[in-house]
Design goal:
Elements (H helix, E strand, L loop, with lengths): L1 H32 L6 H19 L3 H19 L5 H37 L4
């Protein structure tokens, strides 16, 4: 009996996702259809409202509930992050800039050395 419920739920979920996709596509199509007839603000508001309705419909499915659980878990993990202080951020940024500068100078020197060697070997560039 549970397999019947799962298959029915799965079919209903698929139908709801298609309805949500249709509502979203309809709101986008309406945005372009009313291009010369309605104010841009009204068209954007209509498209956003259609998107919101599509999200509400999609949230009624198992996929939508799983996605919402993922968002909730991400928000919880984001609160646990220990963000660096301003001093740490500035020190790290300065260190990265120094390393990039040193590496750039090294590559420039290596390029100049290889260019000099190629000119010496080929006899060109005199």
């Amino acid at each position: 009996m549970s397999s019947e419920t799962e298959s029915t739920g799965s079919g209903l979920d698929t139908a709801l996702l298609f309805v949500a996709l249709g509502v979203l596509a309809g709101s986008i199509a309406g945005f372009y259809y009313f291009e010369g007839q309605a104010n841009d603000l009204i068209r954007v508001a209509g498209m956003l409202a259609g998107g919101a309705v599509a999200v509400v419909i999609a949230m009624q499915t198992a996929v939508g509930r799983t996605a919402w659980g993922y968002v909730q878990g991400s928000r919880i993990e984001l609160r646990r992050v220990v963000w660096p202080s301003r001093k740490e951020t500035l020190q790290t940024t300065l260190m990265i800039m120094v390393v990039v500068l040193v590496l750039a100078l090294f590559l420039w020197g290596l390029d100049a050395l290889l260019l000099w060697a190629m000119k010496l070997l080929t006899g060109r560039g005199e």
